[in-house]
Structure formats: C-alpha cells, structure tokens
Write a structure and sequence with these properties.
heterodimer; A: mainly alpha; about 75% helix; globular; B: 6-stranded antiparallel β-barrel; about 35% helix; about 25% strand
Chain lengths: ~170, ~280
C-alpha cells in the first residue's frame, strides 16, 4: 500500500468517524459500566455521540442512519424494536432545534441543553417501556445513568472537537 | 409585538428542526419519527409474516454483531485469563489444603442415583424432561443494568424450544426467552426479570429465585415463615413449572444482612459454551 493510499484511508476514517463510532456502539451494545457502593452505573455513549454530531456537524450523521442504529440497538439490547430510534430521533430534533437557535456556540449552554434533552428522552423511554410494553425497568438506575451520561458530555465534547480539527486539517491539506 | 416575533422565531426553529432536510439528509426527522412509531407498533404482531421477518432481521443483526464484537471479546477474554493467572497460586494452595476423595464421592453419587431411580419406579413417577442437551456457542454477551442475557448460535432450526433450561457444565445458567431461526436469547438467572422455581436441599424447601441484576448472587423469595435454611445449603431447580428440568444445581445459600441470597456456581462473565435442554 502506497503512502497516498494510507493517507486516503486515514482521511476516510477521520471523515466517517461519527458513523463508525455510532454503529460499533450499536452493534456491540457497548456501555462502560462500573460497580460502586453495590450499584451498577453506566454511560450511554450513543446519546452523547448523536447530540454532539447533530449539533456541530449534521452532514456527518444522517438521520436515516441514526434510525437504523436505533433498530440495531433495540435488537441487541432486547428492547421493543423502534423505541431506541424514537429516542435517538427526539435527541436529534432537540439538537437541531438548539442549532437553529444558537448564534454563538458555548459548551456550557450545550451541556445544559443536553441535560434537558436526556431527561426528556429518558422520561419518554421509561413511560413507553413501562406503560405500553410493561417492560420492568428500574427508574432509579435509568435516571442515575442519564445523570452520569450528562456528566461525561464535556469530556467527549472536547475529544470530538479534536476529531473535527483533525478532519478540517485533512480537508485543507487535500 | 416583540413577544410575537419571539414566538415566530420559536415556531420557525421547531419547524426547521422537524421538517427541514439538511444537506445530505434524505429524510426529515418528522418522517423518520412516524416510521419509528409504525415499526414500534409492529411489536404487537407476535405471529405470522411480521414475526418471521423480525426473526430473520434479528439473526442477521446478531451475526453481524458477533463479528464486530470479536476484538472486544478478545480483549475481555485476555483480561479474565490474566486475572485467572494472578489467582492461580492461591487456588492451588486452597485445593492442596482440602482433602478430597474423588473416587469415594463418585461411588456415593452413583449409589444415590440408582437408589433414586428405584424409588421413583416404586411410586410410578415419570420423568417428563428430556436428558438430551445441545452444545452451543455464545455469540454475544449482552450484560447491561437493564438486561443480563446472552445470544447463542442455535435456534428454531436446531430444535431449540422457548423456556427450556441452559447449563454450563452441570450448573444452571438461565432459560431461553427468545428463539429465532439460527439464534436464541438466553435470560441469565442474574437478570432482574428472572424468576426460577427452586428447591433448597437438604431441607426440601420450595422457593422462587429472583435475579437482582447482580452477577454473583440472586435473592430467595416466597420462603415459608419457619425457615430451616442454613448458610451453605445447595439450591437446585425444582422443575415445578414443567419447563425447566429439575435438579440442576444453581448455587449455595448465603446470608447477608438477614436476607437469604444464593451465590451462583457459574461465573456469568466467562461463559463461552453452554448446553441447551432439547
């Protein structure tokens, strides 16, 4: 493989990074869980990935693909098929709404909106699962996980900012 | 006047978020939300072509998921191997200090087995459970706070039935809750939704083993008021539901803050192959 080909592959990986990350997370059902004080806590990475990329670079993550990732996530996690798609698309709509209303992007403002967004989504998720599908789910675990997902957003945001910068550098080098 | 402009801006922003297709977006959010609700409503069809289509879709996704998860599974396997190596010396010392007479135990077991069969014949009890087991590989290990389950590579095509017991070596792992053409989902005994009818020996007390979402132990429910159960008693499946085979060892009783828990014999983090009751 020539040097230019390697560069091309690297450029494509960086360019499609959010898409690769979203589908790897959906297919593997990956969540970083840890045990503390006898309880199991976990982060929902997919929420952060969707919110950030729809807010900052919506052309990198198509809504159709987000819908598909939701279907895959439901099959892997044994949820009623379609529920994650609804959650992800609602998250997209909140992020898109925030994008149209924002003139000066600010991490703190995004972070607060992210908290509101995941609280709305977790509530919709809980109501649909318990009332319609009678799926036993612990409210405390769901809300605590939503809170931890909220806490990690700034770290992931900074990391994704770096990816966008690398991508821009690659584009200008092209 | 100013509030009218503000309201207009808000409505425009909402309309733009839901209905406007962005650059390189093929569908609007509103269209996809409607499709998602339609897909979700299909969950009510549990039979017929919808169910067949769902089964095939699940098989395809599980197989794809198996290949994508391979690097993560490899890392996890090596992590547990490394952990095992670290504990090897302690385990060796513990086993060395214990006095085992394996031959005597095997002979004793054989005697009890034949005696049990003879007594069952005397009271005309028929064994309704199949003793045939099907070996199966774990394709996907899905353990989150909401769900503790694994996907196996055998399904409806291989003769797997809904609700039957799954074992690792001779210990109880869980039961089949979902059967597709080529894959099935096993609900682990540690899952929050898992309720298994059990018998505690040597007292012969019946109870229900309820999963707590914890990988090491589950709780005993519906115990009689006068409990004669002691720490260290062995818990087996009772088979009273008529689906899960009887006498499969699950774990041993453990007392924790006046609660009776069952410590599993199986390590749910290290499942690779399981046996499914046919």
């Amino acid at each position: 493989m020539t040097k230019s080909n390697i560069r091309k592959v690297y450029h494509n990986i960086i360019h499609t990074f959010p898409l690769i990350l979203l589908f790897v997370l959906a297919f593997t059902g990956f969540d970083l869980s840890f045990f503390l004080f006898g309880n199991n806590y976990y982060f929902n990475f997919i929420y952060a990935v969707i919110f950030y990329w729809v807010l900052k670079k919506p052309d990198r993550l198509g809504y159709g693909l987000i819908f598909l990732a939701g279907i895959i996530n439901d099959v892997v996690q044994n949820f009623p098929i379609g529920i994650s798609s609804i959650n992800y698309l609602l998250l997209c709509s909140i992020a898109a709404f925030l994008r149209t209303r924002t003139l000066m992007p600010n991490l703190l403002y995004d972070w607060i909106f992210y908290l509101i967004a995941i609280l709305i989504i977790s509530s919709v998720n809980y109501i649909t699962l318990t009332l319609i599908f009678e799926y036993p789910i612990k409210y405390g675990t769901l809300m605590f996980s939503a809170f931890i997902t909220f806490l990690i957003y700034p770290i992931l945001s900074k990391l994704f900012d770096r990816i966008i910068l690398i991508d821009l550098r690659e584009d200008s080098a092209k | 006047m100013a509030s009218d402009t503000g309201r207009d801006d808000f409505v425009i922003a909402i309309r733009s978020a839901f209905l406007k297709k962005g650059t390189r977006q093929k569908f609007s959010l509103f269209t996809l939300l409607i499709i998602s609700i339609l897909v979700l409503s299909l969950e009510y069809f549990k039979t017929g072509p919808v169910d067949k289509f769902r089964s095939i879709t699940k098989d395809i996704i599980f197989k794809a998921s198996f290949f994508i998860s391979e690097p993560f599974v490899y890392l996890k396997k090596n992590y547990y191997n490394f952990k095992d190596h670290l504990q090897m010396y302690d385990e060796y010392t513990e086993l060395k200090n214990k006095e085992y007479s394996i031959d005597a135990l095997i002979n004793e077991n054989k005697f009890y087995k034949s005696e049990n069969e003879r007594l069952k014949k005397l009271i005309d009890e028929k064994n309704i459970y199949s003793k045939e087991y099907l070996f199966s590989k774990i394709l996907l290990d899905q353990q989150s706070p909401y769900l503790k389950s694994v996907i196996i590579n055998k399904g409806f095509n291989h003769g797997i039935k809904l609700g039957v017991a799954v074992k690792e070596k001779s210990y109880f792992v869980g039961k089949i809750i979902n059967v597709n053409f080529l894959t099935s989902r096993v609900l682990l005994a540690s899952d929050l939704n898992s309720k298994i009818p059990v018998i505690i020996e040597p007292t012969g007390t019946n109870a229900i083993l309820s999963g707590q979402g914890h990988n090491n132990f589950a709780e005993l429910e519906f115990l009689p008021k006068l409990k004669k159960i002691k720490e260290g008693n062995i818990v087996y499946t009772s088979g009273v539901d008529g689906i899960i085979s009887e006498a499969i060892p699950i774990g041993k009783v453990l007392k924790k803050n006046e609660n009776l828990l069952v410590e599993f014999f199986v390590d749910f983090n290290q499942l690779k192959y399981v046996k499914v009751n046919k």
